[in-house]
Amino acid sequence: MSMARLKAPHGGPVRIVLAKLGLDGHDRGLKVVARMLRDAGCEVVYLGLRQTTDTVVAAAQQEDADLIGISMHNGGHSTLAPRMVEAARAAGVEAPVVVGGIIPPADADELRAAGVAVVLTPGASEADVVAAIAAALETTGGH
Amino acid sequence: MPKRFETLSGIPVDPVYGEGPGPGEFPYTRGPYASMYRSRPWTMRMFAGFGSAADTNRRFGQLLDSGGTGLSTAFDMPTLMGRDSDDDWALGEVGKAGVAIDTLDDMATLFAGIDLGAVSTSMTINGPAAVLMAMYVAVAEGQGTPRAALSGTIQNDILKEYQAQKEYLFPPRPSLRLVTDVIRFTTAEMPRFHPVSISGYHIREAGSTADQELAFTLANGFAYVEAAVAAGLDVDDFAPRLSFFFNAHLDFFEEIGKFRAARRIWARWLHDRYGATDERSLRLRFHTQTAGVSLTAQQPEVNIARVAIQALSAVLGGTQSLHTDAYDEALALPSEAAARIALRTQQVIAHETGVTATADPLGGSAYVEWMTDEMERRAEAIFAHFDELGGGSMLEGVLAGIDNGWIVNEIADAAYQYERAVNSGERVVVGVNRYTDGEEPTADLLRISADVEAAQVERLVATRRDRDQPAVDRALAAIGRVAADPTLNQLPPMIEAVRARATEGEIVQALEAEFGTYVERAAV
After folding, report:
1. On chain B, which terminus has fewer CB atoms closer than 10 Å, C or N?
2. B90 three-state secondary structure
3. What does the pLDDT read at residue B440?
4. Is the model's pLDDT at A139 over the cut of 90?
5. A78 CB within 8 Å of a chain B CB
């Protein structure tokens, strides 16, 4: 199957920081997404487990990230995802924040209202992930 | 009058059919016991935990009232990671995906009104398992049940944490010491308790194939046997109390072959390699949970069918206990209604389908026997790799496979291949990549209020305020001293510390000071 290749608005490959935020250890989904995005031509900086909003912001700054992807499967999203958006904006990082995990539909609405660009849930296909990220990048116009 | 076993049409059924070693006979391919479900059905053990200890205590009561026959406790992420509810790391995760336990007072509330001498309890906890075990003993003894009378299981399987579930605290070797301390303690003082539940479930959920699940899990089992023998125990003193926990995934016959192969491999290895002679050491007994990862957020009611088929594979594979997932688990923690349907699914299998009338009803099927052999062959190839990595020690081989990233990579590769197959449509997932039309029902989902966190922190602060602080300080100092001396068992000072109302987080910090922490190399 051929993959759509993602391009950043600046013309180069999309740089994405991926992290598990908080204590949750479910990393299967995020690792799969990391590989999908690499196949789609992105430069993926995979931070792995037990990251904080501070470590993610620092990595996003250092790597000049076009997008931040965080994953939470244990219900911490309602508290942690809005804080991720706030921490990024407070540090002047404009990269859109994408959240993936077990996110009930009502919570997803709340996260979008709090500034999360895209919410991805179990069953999201490669095409869904790539399309959602392309849309998020387009809205923000990159950095 | 003995119960008669016959079909719905009145045809009498024998306890077992076929030639060769039967159930209850070495190598136990056909089942650990001769009569299997005729004499005792599997334990319908539903995994539950959310919110406060009082919330989960109410759900336990409902499950027991609905015919559940055992309890299984899900702890929240901060508890699983040894953090108190007011720790910075706990923010937003208190009570969300399990019950929040900080002190002995919480544990007492969790089991209030439940006779721990009568109900067997399973606790899914690993990194800080010894601390929760200490709390369980202290609560039971507070209720008047002596520790020797307690039956149940603590997961306490740290090796698969580094490989799959990722809820580790300390580096592997001091963590193994904690595991063997629990084994030594239960062997001496709690003869009815299972000190380790060697778990493939999480390995499979993290993305492994069935044969990898089988091989990594049993290799971990061999590693614990070697560790406990190295700690001075005789294999037949503890092996009868080791138990297993497998995943029941979608490929029906592959799963049944996996369960049958697991029993045969364990029996052969324990006998041939580890010199066990007690039959109970050779009999692999296991709990099963249906595959959470197979559940879909799309058309969630279809999950009821998936769970029923997976549960049937576990029963036909001879499981000793079973948790059936609720259909709404790709969306949230199970609602009460969804959890009830999941339990009812087991009851239909047990009481309506007739599959319990004869042991190993698929034994002798050419396909099932071939699949069982194939599973064993593939697992043996992986064992040979560990044996070589470890220079003749499975324990060292597994530790090397953790250290060099091989196990984690194998699992991630398999997860990615599965996802590629779903994405290309080669693997059909109903409601996801085919038959996607139809209304998306809005399920009535369980929501955990943020108030749970605030209330839990309040209780924790009150416990800290009301306790005898010098006694807590002395108890924590003793934990550090015992941790530094590998000849001592860490359970007795932990029981003292939890009685003094030392918190879980404080005890874990005392251990961390001695053992250090573990950080995984991030790689994809």
Report:
1. N
2. helix
3. 65
4. no
5. yes
Residue ranges making up the domain that contains A35: 15-98+119-140
* Helix, strand or coil, per DSSP, at residue B419: helix
Residue B444's pLDDT is: 80
* Domain assignment present for A107: no
| A21 is a domain residue | yes
Percent of residues in chain B assigned helix, strand, coil, to nearest 5: 50, 10, 40
Residue type, B424: S
The conformation of residue B161, written as its DSSP 8-state character, comes to I
Total domain count for chain A?
1
DSSP letters spanning B295-307:
--SSSTTHHHHHH
Q: Mark which residues 52-111 of B lie under 8 Å from A by CB.
A: 76-78, 80-81, 83, 89-93, 96-97
**If pLDDT is split at 50, 70 and 90, which confidence band does A143 have?**
very low
Question: In 10 A of CB B274, how many CB atoms?
Answer: 17
Domain presence at residue A76: yes
Residues B353 and B347: their CA atoms lie apart, in Å, by: 10
Interface check A104 vs B, CB under 8 A? yes
Give the residue on A whose Cα is nearest the Cα of B422: A125
Residue B510 near residue B84 (C-beta atoms within 8 A) = no
Mean pLDDT of A7-16: 88
pLDDT, average across residues A8-27: 92
Do residues A23 and A50 make contact, with C-beta atoms less than 8 angstroms apart?
A: yes
How far apart are alpha carbons A55 and A40 in whole angstroms?
25
What is the secondary structure of B246-274 as a DSSP string?
EEE-S-HHHHHHHHHHHHHHHHHHHHHTT
Q: Is the predicted pLDDT of residue A142 greater than 80, yes or no?
A: no
Give the integer Cα–Cα distance in Å for B29 and B148: 32
Residues of chain B with pLDDT under 50: 1
Q: A94 in a domain, yes or no?
A: yes
What are the extents of the domains in chain B? 43-149+444-524
Residue B523: the pLDDT is 83
Instruction: Report the C-alpha gap between A45 and A28 in whole angstroms.
Output: 16
Across the beta sheet with B193-194, the strand order is B193-194, B152-154, B121-124, B70-74, B43-48, B321-323, B286-290, B242-248, B196-199
User: Chain B contacts of A123, Cβ < 8 Å?
Assistant: 296-298, 330, 429, 432
> What CA–CA distance (Å, rounded) separates B151 from A80?
39
- Given this model, what pLDDT does residue B361 score? 98
CB-based contacts of A21, cutoff 8 Å, min separation 6: A51, A52, A53, A56, A70, A71, A72, A76, A80, A81, A84
Q: Do B296 and A122 touch (CB under 8 A)?
A: yes
Please report where in the chains the tokens 């192969």 appear, as a residue. Answer: B261
Q: What is the pLDDT of residues A49-72, one digit of tens each?
A: 999 999 999 999 999 999 999 999
A2 band by pLDDT with thresholds 50, 70 and 90:
very low
Query: For residue A1, is pLDDT > 50?
Result: no
Hunting for tokens 């075990």 — which residue is that? B133
Alpha-carbon span B116 to B252, nearest angstrom:
36
* Residue that is written with structure tokens 């003869």 in the block: B191
Task: Name the packing angle between helices B172-189 and B394-403 (round to 10°).
Answer: 140
Which residues are registered as beta bridge partners of A118? A98
**CATH number reported for the structural domain that contains residue A43 in this entry:** 3.40.50.280
